[in-house]
């Protein structure tokens, strides 16, 4: 299993494989999750001038897992933080440590880059991912998330 950040010059084939996986995951959400929007988002996220990135776990030409993140600035921390938007592993690839490998890759990269914090959100009843995050020393922050759509 090879875990790496998707480069700006990724092939269209790789972008489509990532979009296929993300589209599988997005079917459970309230947004329309259209394939073209996902593909466009991937292309924007991996651009060299982007404050976003995509990390994948790949083996034998198949994408088994993905993490998508954005970088921001935290005033209280006095520096950059990483917001983990998505972490998803293909259903038939779960329980094999792939999400852990992706997260460890992200944690080590963030530490090298001087990132002050990694933040994310998960479902209240999602005990599997909570266990994963807690096992890697993430801790709960009580908050309420709001959204405004155009």
From TrEMBL:
Domain N-acetyltransferase: 1-150
Top-rank lineage group of the source organism: Bacteria
InterPro entries named in the record: Acyl_CoA_acyltransferase (IPR016181), GNAT_dom (IPR000182)
The protein's name in its UniProt record: GNAT family N-acetyltransferase
């Amino acid at each position: 299993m090879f875990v790496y950040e998707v480069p700006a010059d990724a092939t269209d084939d790789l972008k489509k494989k990532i979009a296929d996986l993300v589209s599988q995951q997005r079917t459970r959400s309230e947004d329309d999750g259209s394939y073209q929007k996902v593909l466009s988002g991937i292309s924007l996220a991996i651009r060299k001038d982007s404050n976003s990135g995509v990390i994948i776990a790949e083996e034998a030409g198949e994408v088994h897992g993905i993490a998508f993140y954005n970088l921001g600035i935290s005033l209280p921390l006095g520096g950059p933080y990483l917001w983990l938007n998505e972490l998803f592993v293909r259903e038939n690839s779960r329980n094999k440590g792939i999400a852990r490998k992706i997260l460890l890759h992200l944690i080590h990269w963030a530490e090298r880059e001087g990132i002050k914090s990694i933040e994310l959100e998960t479902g209240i009843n999602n005990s599997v991912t909570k266990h994963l995050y807690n096992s890697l020393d993430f801790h709960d922050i009580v908050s309420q998330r709001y959204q405004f759509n155009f």
